[in-house]
Amino acid sequence: VAGTGELHYSINGQPFQAVAMADSAPGQFTATLPAMPSCADDVRFYVSAQGSNGQTYSDPPAAPAGYYSAVAAVSLDTVYQNNFELNDAGWTVVNTNLTTGAWERADPVGTTQGANIAAPFDDAEAGAASFCMVTENGNPGASVGASDVDGGPTDLISPPLDFAGTDGFISYQRWFYSSGADVLEVAVSGDGTNWVNVETVTGGNNQWTLHQFRVGDYIAPTATVQVRFRTADVSPGSIVEGGIDVFKAESFNCEWCQPTVALAAVGGATLSMCGDQLSVATPNTTLAVEGMPPLANGLLLFDLFATPTPSPWNSGELISPAPIVLGPVFANGAGSFSAPLNIGGLLPPGLSVYLQTVYADAAQPGQVGITNGLRVEWF
Predict the structure, then answer these.
(1) Helix (H) or strand (E) holding 112
(2) What does the alpha-carbon distance between residue 175 and residue 89 come to, in Å, rounded to a whole number?
(3) At 365, phi and psi to the nearest 5?
(4) Which of 24, 51, 83, 141 has the greatest number of CB atoms lying within 10 Å of its CB?
(5) For a pLDDT cut of 70, what percent of the chain falls above it?
(6) Confidence (pTM)
């Protein structure tokens, strides 16, 4: 029914508020989600409208218990990831009163109990990879109870993950089988001592399943966040098997980075500008060049238009045939240059310029390195 669309939203867990949606076409409604004031703010939302039968319908149908969500961030930065193909460095296994079934990195050997698969036959990336973490890999042809978890618990604990000053997601693929009432407990900690339960997985989950959680929903994010996977075979004894694979930790990044212009670069240096989305109200950003030779000199170039042109020194490209020199850049001992800038009101909204850096590099053809280009935009 026209005029009945509503957007319901909640910021950071506050009660849902409702705003009217605009009629954009017959049976179609439009609304804008509210601005979120801080990095990593969370918004939950759902929509509702009245049908021609007089009933009100929501999407998702279980609203408000069910809802969609979004996070105020520009992107996700990978803090850590491991699919265990190369190693399990940094992971810790702690066993208490365990007879068999300690966590280990392995190419899994599957087992069955009747019609049920107990230990997985493949890792979570079957066909693309081989290794994962499992509760004691058995020998081919051995009985289902030869290497499963007996006693315990056995704990698999991740390396410390740095979420200081931000928040983010941790995800993993998990497998768990128990023929009894045993469980796989997943917990998170900010100090390695105090643990908060994230999920309790029962024995009917003997398939690889992706799970993701937001760190801040359970603990205050720190520089030493860890995840613990714990299982045991409690009395009466049963068959217990677990697996973990494709572990990833990602933090929220709220810096706005100006878009890169694809040019043929020479050498290993990169040019970036990250900070505010440039406007009069949000004027701050940082220009950085990383990867130059230590103490190298260079020039910052700009033009109003990007017309990629072969460079006169090597096989690279310049942003235009005759770019303008904005000024010098000087690498420090680590090969980096950084300059904080307050330029939000420098140009009117909708305008942009193009930047690039050339620098001295004796290892490159013509002894000149060339970075990527940037399109710097004002809003």
Answers:
(1) strand 112-113
(2) 21
(3) -55, 135
(4) 83
(5) 100
(6) 0.74
